[in-house]
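lol forgot to send this yesterday, sorry. struct tokens for the thing we talked abt
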């Protein structure tokens, strides 16, 4: 079955001859090459000649909670990686976020074994998991800290929000004295900051993003 991309008029296109421009300058569809097929279980591309809105097909078998699915490229960013939204599959494979997503590299880093990862689902929701950590235990409290570089379109939220984060190790004290926590604030322009409570105990180091879910601000559909 042929693939067809959509075209849009440019400001420089003229409308002196409507019929001519509709058939030539204002092309609606034209044939294009077949999409890339990824072998079953293969990683979705993180490099190559792909543009936002392009799609690939991952040829998974229809069993073991997987089935063949198209994926649309919604984000390609040097700091945050490439992220693909599934169409038939419920959720995409988890993509490891590059270590250079960290802005404050003097104090923070991605955990070397519990990697920071993002997945997208077929409804367009963005899911996070994994850990970042301070290079030296003990996280400042009651201070907004800009740890991440700007989150790109496709995986940034559609509204400003805050979400609680788990922190470890925790205090051994009882009651409020034992509570250690954090939160992420993120806006729909991609800015984010972290803020923490009761973490300046000389031990707290790991910040967990498991359970962070939100609707991204830009939805990408088929380009062809």
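and heres what i got for the seq, position by position
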């Amino acid at each position: 079955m042929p693939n067809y991309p959509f075209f849009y008029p440019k400001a420089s296109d003229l409308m002196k001859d409507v019929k001519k421009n509709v058939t030539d300058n204002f092309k609606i569809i034209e044939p294009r090459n077949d999409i890339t097929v990824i072998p079953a279980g293969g990683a979705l591309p993180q490099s190559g000649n792909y543009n936002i809105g392009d799609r690939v097909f991952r040829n998974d078998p229809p069993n073991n909670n997987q089935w063949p699915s198209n994926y649309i490229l919604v984000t390609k960013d040097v700091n945050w990686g490439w992220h693909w939204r599934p169409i038939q599959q419920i959720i995409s494979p988890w993509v490891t976020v590059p270590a250079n997503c960290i802005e404050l590299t003097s104090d923070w880093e991605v955990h070397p074994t519990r990697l920071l990862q993002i997945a997208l689902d077929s409804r367009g929701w963005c899911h996070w998991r994994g850990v970042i950590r301070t290079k030296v235990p003990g996280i400042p409290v009651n201070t907004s800290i800009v740890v991440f570089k700007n989150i790109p379109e496709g995986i940034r939220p559609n509204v400003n929000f805050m979400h609680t984060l788990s922190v470890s190790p925790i205090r051994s004290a009882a009651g409020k004295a034992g509570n250690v926590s954090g939160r992420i604030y993120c806006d729909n322009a991609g800015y984010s900051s972290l803020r923490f409570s009761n973490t300046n105990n000389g031990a707290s180091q790991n910040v967990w993003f498991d359970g962070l879910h939100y609707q991204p601000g830009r939805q990408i559909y088929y380009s062809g």
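The mean pLDDT is 85. anyway ping me if u want another try
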